[in-house]
Amino acid sequence: MPIQRLRTETRYSEINIHNGTVYLAGQLADDHGGDIVQQTRETLASIDALLAEAGSDKSRILSVTIYLKDMARDYAGLNQVWDAWVAEGHAPARACVEAKMYRPEVLVEMTVVAAQ
């Protein structure tokens, strides 16, 4: 079965599809100047758009890994937005870890695996 790669850059592809499974590269907010609520909303909107491009949607997400810059400060704000966004009855497997981000103003990044 071939691998389909969409939005390919030099170092990565935004979307990889193989055998009915969609893999998204780490997604970030476009505007890194906002708080955790704004950055989480933008990140989830990006995930929605990429899943749609891959022929999937948030109800088909299998797992998400969430990277937070500051778990103590931002976990509640992240979950406020996440809980309103996640498809009812379709909560994916999820891990949330604190991580040093590639830029100081980035507060959250998410990687996603979904069924197509």
Automatic annotation (TrEMBL):
Pfam hit, one: Ribonuc_L-PSP
Domain of life of the source: Bacteria
Protein name per the record: Enamine deaminase RidA, house cleaning of reactive enamine intermediates, YjgF/YER057c/UK114 family
Organism name: Pseudomonas borbori
